[in-house]
Amino acid sequence: MSSLPSKAPAELKDDLTSGQVHFLDVRTEDEYGGGTIDVPNVTNIPVKLRDANGARIDNQDFLSSVETQFPDKEIPIVTSCYGGGRGSAACQLLHSAGYKNVTNLLGGIDAWEKEGFAIKGDVAAPADH
Q1: Average pLDDT, integer, range 29-40
Q2: 52: in domain
Q3: Between vectors from CA 96 to CA 94 and to CA 100, what angle results, nearest 5°?
Q4: Has residue 77 been placed in a domain?
Q5: pLDDT bucket at 85, cuts 50 / 70 / 90
Q6: How confident is the model at residue 129, as a pLDDT?
Q7: CB 112 within 8 A of CB 86
Q8: pTM for the full model?
Q9: What percentage of the chain has pLDDT greater than the value 70?
Q10: Which domain holds residue 76?
Q11: N or C: where does the chain have the smaller number of CB atoms within 10 Å of the terminal CB?
């Protein structure tokens, strides 16, 4: 099995800032509410949720929510979370669901910010990162 594409922020910057691809921020709604990368076409659909104890659990509605938002499985999508782990998992789920043009942002939003690229709001590492 070949690995799914992951690209560094510098490799994706032009496509993301021009709006040529959709940015799928897969962090929780609370994390997303604090801020995200400053590009057009940003959508937040959490791949993980928090349970009553604060532990991360799978979002059972993730794929159906993505399919509702992005019914065209040929559309270019970049997935990301804060550090890359959940973004990579989301990329794998989307690929398995038939999405053909999905890439993970290598290093996540943290790497994007460290490159000095534009951020909206105050992106912070999750408490369990």
Answers
A1: 93
A2: yes
A3: 65
A4: yes
A5: very high
A6: 55
A7: no
A8: 0.93
A9: 95
A10: 6-117
A11: N
